[in-house]
Amino acid sequence: MIRRDSFPDGMALDAAPLWRITLDRPDKANALTEDMLAQLLNMVREAQTHPNLRALVITGAGEKVFCAGADLDAARAGLATSPLWEALSAALADLPCLTIAALNGTLAGGAMGVALACDLRISVEHATFFYPVAKLGFLPQPSDPKRLVALIGPSRTKMLLLCGAKFTASEALAFGLIDKIVPQSALWSEAQNLAAAAIAGKPEVLRAIKSMTPSGLT
């Protein structure tokens, strides 16, 4: 299930300056099915049509896992290589508003692309980060290695993708994979604090600033 909230509370989606999208399947580590992935992509594409939207936060339900990537049964049925993953990353990266991945727990597998495509990544301290494509026999999403290299460099990218390394939150922060570590109880409030200036500003200025800020991709 994918849940979407608008803020201030109760404001219509097309007028709200802030959206929160929650991956809401905590009993299955918020792993994504094909329907969930398609729903998430549709929500992000819808966000592109609302000029008043200044910030979008993606988080997960529960206190252990942001997202374990693809649901295992769905992955075996072909979801692991679905073009939906890359379409979602591209749609997120193309949003003119501020995008924040508020990582409430572990980030793994294909879900890495969701976080990498956001402007900012904040994380709780107990989160771990891994991308076991080599072990599972899959290629990463095409844009993920480029985004990883831009953030953490080629060697650490190879540690994740080729060696199956698991990074702690402290290591991820030191390497540049995430931007801040916050207590679990403060994750949402910190995301709102980071979005405050964007929400207070003019949408056209926000879009211009994003267009002036290189992503590091070539």
Helix fraction bin: 25-40%
Integer average pLDDT = 94
Count of the domains:
1
The CATH architecture classification is Alpha-Beta Complex
Q: How much strand?
A: 15-25%
From the spread of the alpha carbons, the general shape counts as globular
| The CATH top-level class label | Alpha Beta
Strand order of the largest sheet: 1-2-3-5-7-10
- How far the N terminus sits from the C terminus, by CA atoms, comes to 34 Å
Structural class: alpha/beta
Rg calc: 16 Å
Number of separate helices: 10
- Can you count the beta strands? 10
CATH T-level topology: 2-enoyl-CoA Hydratase, Chain A, domain 1
Order of helices and strands: EEHEEHHEEHEEHHHEHEHH
CATH superfamily: 2-enoyl-CoA Hydratase, Chain A, domain 1
Q: Runs with pLDDT <50, length 5+? A: none
Largest pleated sheet: 6 strands, mixed
Write up what this structure looks like.
This protein is α/β, with parallel strands linked by helices and 218 residues long. It has a single domain (2-212), classed as 2-enoyl-CoA Hydratase, Chain A, domain 1, CATH 3.90.226.10. The chain has helices at residues 34-47, 72-76, 84-94, 112-116, 133-136, 144-152, 154-161, 169-175, 187-200, 203-212, and strands spanning 2-7, 18-23, 55-60, 65-67, 98-103, 106-108, 120-124, 128-130, 167-168, 180-182. Strands 1-2-3-5-7-10 form a six-stranded mixed sheet, sandwiched between helices. Helix 1 links the parallel strand 2 (18-23) and strand 3 (55-60). Helix 1 (34-47) packs parallel to helix 3 and helix 6 crosses helix 7 (154-161). The longest helix is centred in the first third of the chain and has 14 residues, at 34-47. 42% of the residues are buried.
